[in-house]
Amino acid sequence: MKITKASDYALRVVGFFATAEKNRYYMRNELSEICSVPDSFLGKILQHLVKSGILESERGKKGGFRLSKNPEDITLYDIIRSVEGEIVINECLVEGNACKISGNCKIHNVLDQVRCNLINELKKVNVSNLV
Amino acid sequence: MKITKASDYALRVVGFFATAEKNRYYMRNELSEICSVPDSFLGKILQHLVKSGILESERGKKGGFRLSKNPEDITLYDIIRSVEGEIVINECLVEGNACKISGNCKIHNVLDQVRCNLINELKKVNVSNLV
DNA sequence: ATATTTTAAGATAAAAAAACTCTTTTTTAA
DNA sequence: TTAAAAAAGAGTTTTTTTATCTTAAAATAT
Ligand code: SF4
Ligand code: SF4
């Protein structure tokens, strides 16, 4: 019942961008230093964030990463979702992985509700709330 | 961001007890069969549930497991807490594991809030709500 | 008392997931 | 055309989850 380290790292980086110089590109190794995230691992995380449209990147000299939208428009949910996929709380909540009892399992229904509430909580907080 | 299989198994077993014959002892292998949980693994899970006072056990012939309190007085939180320890959402929220930034980290504070809400959600649902 | 049935406890093993690295390719700017 | 940067993906290590096995202890029936 925990977010992964990758998620925490992603939150740190995106959180940093909210305070950082607008529009400037930051290189992976700069971000690694600033946010205390292992450089190579950060590579993968940044790729996820780019792919889901939270960051944008530019290759080559003068390249790097920067926010691709306003901090107000990025929620904690977006970031966690981006690096670890959909939040499910329990395996049976993901399409196709239902256990044989799923149909009328009250636990299933309750956990689904808990998941909705959790996701809504995470959607309530945006990156500008982190400065 | 998921509960463990052990938690789901525990929920199934305790959920079953809510519908089962009151006061009767059920053996580990009966419960294993009924709830589709690997027998040996269930042993460990039942031990946790006994240790935290959700179930009570009796050894020897006529022995087994049964609820040690009313279904109304057992919450989903109690069960999950029993088998996987305190819910923390992020490592830095557990005493002594704070990262160097913890002191004034907004992410930390927000996740702590999310954790509280999640725990409260889980406390709202009791086992009798599962029948 | 003794055999039998059952949980308790803990060590250990296997499997899966998370955390992290490395290498090669592609893109860009100077 | 060269140097610097990210992209992509394979590969490794570590940690956690999941599960089993073995031995001990307790309770009961005979
Ligand atoms: S028992 Fe219920 S909650 Fe657990 S996996 Fe099956 S459907 Fe989901
Ligand atoms: S950066 Fe903030 S949230 Fe992440 S581990 Fe450190 S204190 Fe916790």
TrEMBL record, chains A, B:
One of its GO terms (molecular function) is DNA-binding transcription factor activity. GO terms for cellular component: cytosol. It comes from the Bacteria. This is Rrf2 family transcriptional regulator. It comes from Calditerrivibrio nitroreducens.
